[in-house]
Here is the input.
Amino acid sequence: MSGNDQGGAPSAGMARQYGDSRKLAARARLHREYAVAETPWFAWVAQQLPLRAGDHVVDIGCGPGWFWASAADRLPDRLALTLADQSPGMVEEATGRCRPLPFGSVAGRQADAAALPFDDGSFDAVIAMHMLYHLADPAAGIAEMARVLRPGGVLAVTTNGAGNMRELYELTTVFGGASSEPMAAIFGFDAAERLMRSRFGNVAWSRHPAGLRITDPEDVFLALTSFPPGETASETQQEAFRAAIDRAFRQAGGVLEVRTEMGLFLSRKGS
Here is the structure.
């Protein structure tokens, strides 16, 4: 997961989730600690982005800026980076993390992804990592991102497929969770391909080749109770969830193998 996990007009629950990075960190830990991949997620995304030295880039739903901090030395020189998020706390954290890094410039902006506070044609690239599924209307968000792109500019979107971490989501049914990636039903691989092609007339996508080998059941519990419905599950439901996790680890011999489905979609705006 990217760490950029917020956007749109949040409910009170969304505001609690993304006021700062603490809850997001519990989910990101699974990928940071247990990913099995030839190239880590952030580095892989950085390799795919068609950026050039000096480009003006905006990250919509920037979260705490983990991607840029991780990938700074893999990106072209002198990028003019704007970090935008609905949460002022996330913007503050992201800009504080990125300003000491070797970017041409770093600016922060509180922004609603469905009504971006930028002029038409302001950016060479728009990045939206794992956030469009938070919008009430992802197509409207993509339209806004297309508007602020310069002709020839690129929109880069990341999201999850329906099979992402299915082995973990199946365990959450004890407290009413979905048995598959819940965000993919809103904006998964199929929707990303369809909506971006509809807006731009072109889309290219690739899937990150990776999986997880998880060795600590507590990290599974903390990650999947960091957001609803696990976050609001009763004590009895959470105890049942712990039991389900422990049973899954025993059956797997102490190491839980989990499939991931994370992809990057690229569309270029016509001249």
The CA atoms of residues 98 and 269 lie 27 Å apart.
